[in-house]
Amino acid sequence: MNKGNKTQYAILGVLSIQPMCGYEIRKAMDTSIKYFWQESNGQLYPTLANLAKNKLVTVEKQAIGKKNRKVYSITTLGKNKLKDWLVQSTEYYPARNELVLKLFFGQNVPAKVSIKHLKKHSERCEAALKIYREIEAQLVAEIKQKIRPVYFLLAVKAGVKAVEAELDWCRESITLINKYT
Amino acid sequence: MNKGNKTQYAILGVLSIQPMCGYEIRKAMDTSIKYFWQESNGQLYPTLANLAKNKLVTVEKQAIGKKNRKVYSITTLGKNKLKDWLVQSTEYYPARNELVLKLFFGQNVPAKVSIKHLKKHSERCEAALKIYREIEAQLVAEIKQKIRPVYFLLAVKAGVKAVEAELDWCRESITLINKYT
DNA sequence: CATAGCATGTAAACAGTTACATGATTAT
DNA sequence: ATAATCATGTAACTGTTTACATGCTATG
Predict the structure, then answer these.
(1) Is the pTM value of this prediction over 0.90?
(2) From the CA of B108, how many Å to the C1' of D8?
(3) DSSP string computed for A18-67
(4) CB-based contact (8 Å) between B112 and chain A?
């Protein structure tokens, strides 16, 4: 009961920003949040229905022509549930990392294989960093003008720092492999 | 077919170091590998049985008194399967991060809540860093004496770099919250 | 003699993705 | 016309954890 079903909190959190329909929640998650949280449709819609059943959100059906949207709004009950989760401290599980796992077993393949993985990962990190930096600059400007709360920036900065560290690690690792194989 | 069932590769990888029984694989995973890869018993034993069925490992039953161990060894077929996976490039999925998700929704709770989370996370990172640094020092010494291949060090360094970056992020984030709330 | 560690495993529940199904609307 | 986007959802599958079940052996 303490864990699991974090999907509901991710949804409640998104709805705490503004009321949205399922599709919009999906989009919101596929843009900003996707760098640190992902949900699939197969999770989203059933969870949304469940939240409504438990009165944590309300549903308002909007019919534009024959197009049917369901706009979800967070209720007071939902906000309290979200807050309860927000104040709870998180547990720290180091995440699975397939690249590190592969490198760990690197003695089974030629050194160039591991170096290739590291170079490819560097490229991915550079690309991600570029995107993060753009979002970061945008957010900094908006925070200074008091349009945005600072919290979105923290999330982006987490990405920036993580990717910078990975780039650093890739460079060092290539040097180490070249030195010790 | 391209993805999934990475458990088998983690096991094959561990067995590429030396033959072990299930319990020892478990222990090996619960020590070194756990920082970037975790497996539970519910995954380990059925996968091990499956690897044996597919001739990727062999089983040798050792009876010490009434205590029964099954010692698993990787076969040539298993080594090839492992190598095939090792040379394949990994996909880059940013991992889920509950702490960042919580901070992202920080405007729903007082600033001190988010700061508390960040301080607690700093402490966890400091503790992890201490452990990583000890392992790192040990490995560096062993690599210089050519006892160990360099690849274990890379994995530890990934942890060191990641945790250092998180510490940095925690410090900056606290400053930002204090400044902009 | 009790507890921790060695040793193997299973069943049920839960988490999560993928692929599919359906249909309207807008832009090219 | 047709492709992209809006919009909602389900079913089947896979992955993963948790909790349990069993029993031996060494140590304090």
Answers:
(1) yes
(2) 29
(3) --EEHHHHHHHHHTTGGGT----HHHHHHHHHHHHHTTSEEEEEEEETTE
(4) no
Phi first, then psi, for residue A16 (nearest 5°) are -70, -20
Q: Which of A100, A113, A179 sits opposite B36 (nearest CB)?
A: A100
Cα separation of B26 and B11, whole Å? 9
Cα-based torsion angle of the residue sequence A133, A138, A141, A144 in order, rounded to the nearest 10 degrees: -90
Residues of chain B with pLDDT under 50: 1-2
Q: How far is B168 from chain A (nearest CA, A)?
A: 8
The amino acid sitting at A55 is K
Question: Residue B67 has what pLDDT?
Answer: 81
Give SS3 for B145.
Answer: coil
Dihedral, A38, A101, B8, B58 alpha carbons, nearest 10: -170
Chain A residues whose beta carbon lies within 8 Å of the beta carbon of residue B83 = 108-109
Which of A13, A82, A157 lies at the smallest CB-CB distance from B172?
Answer: A157
* B3 close to A (CB below 8 A): no
